[in-house]
Amino acid sequence: MNKQTRLKILAVSVALVLSACSKPEAPAEMTGADTVFVNGRVYTVDADRSWAEAVAITDGKINYVGSTADADMHIGSNTTVIDLEGRMLMPAFQDSHIHPIGAGVEASACNLNGLNDLAAYRSVIGEYAAANPDVEWITGGGWSMSVFGPGGSPSRTVIDELVPDRPVFLSSQDGHSGWANSRALEIAGITRDTANPVDGIIDKDPVTGEPIGSLQEGAMRLVTRHIPPETAETRQQGLIYAQNLLHSYGITSIQDAIVDRDALETYAALERAGQLNLRVVASLWWDRQRGTEQIDELIALREEYNTGGLVRPTTVKIMEDGVMENYTAAMLEPYLIPSGSKGIPMVEPEALKQAVTVLDAAGFQVHFHSIGDAAIRYALDAIEEALLENGQLGNRHHISHIQMWDPADIPRFAELDVVANFQPLWAYADEYVTELTIPFIGEERARWMYPIKTVQDTGAVIAFGSDWSVSTANPFPQMETAVTRMSAVDDAYPVFLPEERIDLESAIVGFTINAAFVNKHEDKTGSIEVGKLADLIVLDRNLFEIEPADISETKVLLTLFGGEAVHGDPASL
Questions:
Q1: Of 497, 519, 521, the residue nearest 428 (C-alpha)
Q2: Mean pLDDT over residues 549-560, rounded?
Q3: In a 3-state reduction of DSSP, which class is residue 342?
Q4: Which residue, 130, 265, 431, 514, could crosslink 146 as a Cys pair with Cβ 3.0–4.6 Å?
Q5: For the residues 394-403, what does the mean pLDDT come to?
Q6: What is the homologous superfamily of the domain 27-91+526-573 according to CATH?
Q7: CA 234, CA 338: separation in Å to the nearest integer?
Q8: How far apart are CA 189 and CA 198, in angstroms?
């Protein structure tokens, strides 16, 4: 080794010694996640239905799910740490069938929701008319058909006594019947000689033939087309009201069951203003008075409003029948009434097959309203025809309400990959079931009302929705009824078909990951997993540690939408 080489080795050795002895440089400050929840009972609703203790959120997404001990590595100098102190954290809810804009508008109109007798209706109608003397048309609704007995036919004379000089039109709680006063009928030109439309019924006095004042299904259009349209401001305020209410229930994603251009513009206006905090799949309305010539218009609406934001008008809603209570739900066998009616198929079966096949080929999800066993069959037949023509395109068609089934059609949901979209709050023996339905179909057919467990056991995907304002948007009473088959608010009603009860896990899944599947964003929402959006809720109790009868009492303490609080205050937990 020469002298020059020895000197180089010596220099390197000295440098290493000096480096080892020098003071180390301070490490960079660790930022960590934006928010970390610790010490919780985290029900993830992942594929394993696993539990965790902690969740970390960064930039609106979940980047850690696991133990509290291991969450430390995600806590930095700028991290907000929230100690859940054992509270339950779970994915935010999703509603697969809801009407938020109309429900929000109705809440500020002549609102009869939650009232259960004629005296209360009289009081509210009279008070609203007196408080709003300049309103040209008095509108609103929420009245219960059970108050007026079988057929649900309230009289115009009741409103005439309160409001004789202005038109009044009030929709029923389920939205399938209308109650008009004489002035409204006069403006609409409805007399004893007015014929029923093909998709509706004008109720008439059996003796005099005069219109009673109640209008069923498509007959409502005879009046509603004369009502001045709501203003854009009214619709936007209705949506803001609805959004705040939904957030208080822990709901951050929905499928709006009926939209038109006005509704889409309402959502778009709020989104432009930075006020929309809902993920919305919008179901474009299928005009049953027309045929497939309207599909180009639906495609144009989809292209105009499907801009990559929070609203996706990628679904088409087809109403295939009415409801059991006014005998307009389409049935395979007649109702037990003098007319022997089988209800009203709103779209004839062959026309339905054609429409669904073309919509499916155009990439639309089809969202059916089918209540009677015939309407369910017609929807399934139409989907089957579309699959034969187009193959399986993955459009995730779903049928909602599905009250009255023929058992032969139960396996077809799984076979055809159709989602069964139940409204579980209705699956108990209230007056609608015991007084307005079972006497007119018989006990044997009634066995197949809302068979949630039987359908689930076939392997079909079960999703839940509220149909608000028809019934509450609050998921907790709905889950309680699905689990108990009893009313969540009145113990007087007996258990209804107890063999159709489902477990709590299934009820939660119906409002989370399965609803996300319907909305086609289960890869981003519906469960608590790394990479998904931080749409989360904190509850005041652990649903798995309480009695089923107490589920409906649960309150949401905090709702996060993309990691941001839209209900409650994280600091107050």
A1: 497
A2: 98
A3: coil
A4: 431
A5: 98
A6: Urease, subunit C, domain 1 (2.30.40.10)
A7: 44
A8: 17
Closest CA to 182 of 201, 165, 199: 165
Indicate the pairing of strand 251-259 with strand 211-217. unpaired
Average pLDDT rounded to a whole number, residues 368-386: 98
What residue spans of 391-472 are helical by DSSP H?
A: 412-415, 431-434, 443-446, 452-457
**What mean pLDDT do residues 519-540 have?**
98
Please check whether the domain covering 101-224 is classified as CATH 3.10.310.70: yes
Q: Which residues contact 535 (CB under 8 A, 6 or more apart)?
A: 91, 92, 252, 253, 279, 525, 560, 561, 562
DSSP H stretches of helix in 42-145: 100-107, 118-131
- DSSP assignment letter at 324: G
Largest CA distance in the chain: 127
Tokens 């309160």, residue located: 162
Q: Helices 349-361 and 295-305 sit at what angle, rounded to 10 degrees?
A: 40
**Among the ranges given (144-153, 472-481, 497-506), the one the predictor scored with the smallest mean pLDDT:** 144-153
Domain residue ranges in the chain: 27-91+526-573, 101-224, 232-525
- Decide: residue 296, CB within 10 A, 0-12 exposed, 13-18 middle, 19+ buried: exposed
Mean pLDDT of 130-152: 89
Is the previous residue joined to 466 through a cis bond, with omega within 30 degrees of 0?
A: no
Task: Name 75's bridge partners.
Answer: 32
Q: What is the mean pLDDT of the chain?
A: 93
Alpha helices (H) along 437-488: 443-446, 452-457, 475-484
Instruction: Please tell me whether residue 399 adopts helix, strand or coil conformation.
Output: strand
Minimum mean pLDDT range among 59-73, 175-189, 295-309? 175-189
Whether residue 259 contacts residue 313, with contact meaning beta carbons closer than 8 Å, is answered with yes
13 pLDDT more than 70: no
Q: Say what the pLDDT of residue 30 is.
A: 63
pLDDT of residue 148: 87
Given a cut of 90, whether residue 76 has pLDDT beyond it is yes
Q: Would you identify the CATH topology of the domain 232-525?
A: TIM Barrel (3.20.20)
Element (H, E) at 201: strand 200-204
Q: Which pTM does this prediction carry?
A: 0.89
pLDDT digits (tens, 9 = 90+) for 41-58: 999 999 999 999 999 999
Q: For residues 211 and 189, what is the distance between their CA atoms, to the nearest angstrom?
A: 11
Q: Which residue has the tokens 């059970």?
A: 146
